[in-house]
Q: What sequence folds into this?
């Protein structure tokens, strides 16, 4: 019944590896996001998709590649992981684009790069 | 994007009302005022949003100043579960409206 679900919840991996985080929403929403929360607890938007189309790409290294196979899924693939990629990554969705709507966030994926 | 200013932290007693202030003096006419909160070890959670009029929902009330340069999130009866970081956010209209830009927020402590 979880509205926005992310897998895995925890991910520990070595530098240089490639990993993916999956996100699914069962709300029928058109818009999905990826956010990163660093160790100082700042939440920063990384990407936004609307109906599978990339809308926002916020100065994120190109090692990060989002993929939206359908509008219910937005996965995040990270190549050549670095120590600085350690953070909590949150997926979110909104019914549609626009400022007069709310976003629903997943529980987060804690990525630790060692 | 227009900026918001919130106190770093606040304390309140359990079962009492809490008023969380937010200043946004550079707000534009089409900016919506949103509030989210983040409980420990959880993702952000939508609380409420509004444009000009005061808003109420099951979680809270949002009081918006007449000039819209400030707003207040009101938790009517705080519980320990309301201890969280509360974010006041302006969402701009137009092509920039797909972002929710989080600031530092206010850390709310609830005293039993």
A:
């Amino acid at each position: 019944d979880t509205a926005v679900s992310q897998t895995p919840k925890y991910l520990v991996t070595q530098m240089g590896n490639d990993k993916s985080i999956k996100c699914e929403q069962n709300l029928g929403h058109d818009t999905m996001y990826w956010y990163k929360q660093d160790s100082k607890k700042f939440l920063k938007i990384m990407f936004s998709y609307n109906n599978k189309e990339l809308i926002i790409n916020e100065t994120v290294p190109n090692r990060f590649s989002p993929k939206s196979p359908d509008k219910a899924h937005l996965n995040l693939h990270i190549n050549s992981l670095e120590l600085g990629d350690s953070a909590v990554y949150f997926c979110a969705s909104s019914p549609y684009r626009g400022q007069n709507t709310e976003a629903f966030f997943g529980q987060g994926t804690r990525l630790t790069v060692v | 994007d227009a900026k918001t200013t919130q106190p770093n932290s606040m304390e309140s007693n359990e079962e009492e009302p809490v008023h969380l202030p937010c200043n946004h003096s550079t707000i534009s006419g089409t900016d919506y005022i949103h509030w989210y909160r983040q409980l420990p070890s959880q993702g952000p959670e939508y609380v409420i949003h509004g444009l000009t009029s005061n808003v109420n929902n099951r979680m809270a009330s949002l009081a918006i100043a007449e000039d819209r340069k400030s707003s207040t999130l009101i938790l009517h009866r705080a519980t320990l579960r309301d201890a969280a970081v509360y974010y006041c956010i302006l969402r701009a209209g137009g092509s920039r409206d797909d972002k929710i830009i989080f600031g530092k927020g206010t850390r709310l402590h609830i005293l039993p």
In short: Chain B has a mean pLDDT of 93. The two ends of chain B are 38 Å apart (CA to CA). Chain B touches chain A at residues 30-32, 34, 36, 38, 42-46, 49, 51, 85, 91-93, 97-102, 104 (CB under 8 Å).
